[in-house]
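Write out this protein's structure.
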Amino acid sequence: MPVRIQAEPFDPGAELNAFSKTASDVGAVVSFTGLVRDVSGGLEVMEIEHYPAMTEPAIEAMVTEAKTRWALADVLVIHRFGHLNAGDTIMMVATASRHRADAFAAADFLMDYLKSRAPFWKKEVTGEGAAWVESKAEDETALERWKA
């Protein structure tokens, strides 16, 4: 159940290959890789901040919840912080299970919770200045389907 919070870039293909090799008794591996989007059309850099003593335990709790809801053999979550450019890989989630339905559902659940509840603070810097990224109503709506 690796959770890695890091500034360094990573290779999603290499991470997925390594993750898949550790899961010998599974029938499905699902992955999602997120990229920094230039929503405004003028992004110079995305600054991502976090508090390590809060971030890692919060994400580990999300992973633990996913493992209680679905039959998962393994989970990988990688999230970057620091200065990122448009198109940079920002995060990755991979889930492994005996059956694809559990792997897909758990990956979807983790993405919704990472997007809305992981304690990261994001600031978009453009030629016009800098602004903190605010939560979106559609992200909150997506969480509703996971309420027990």
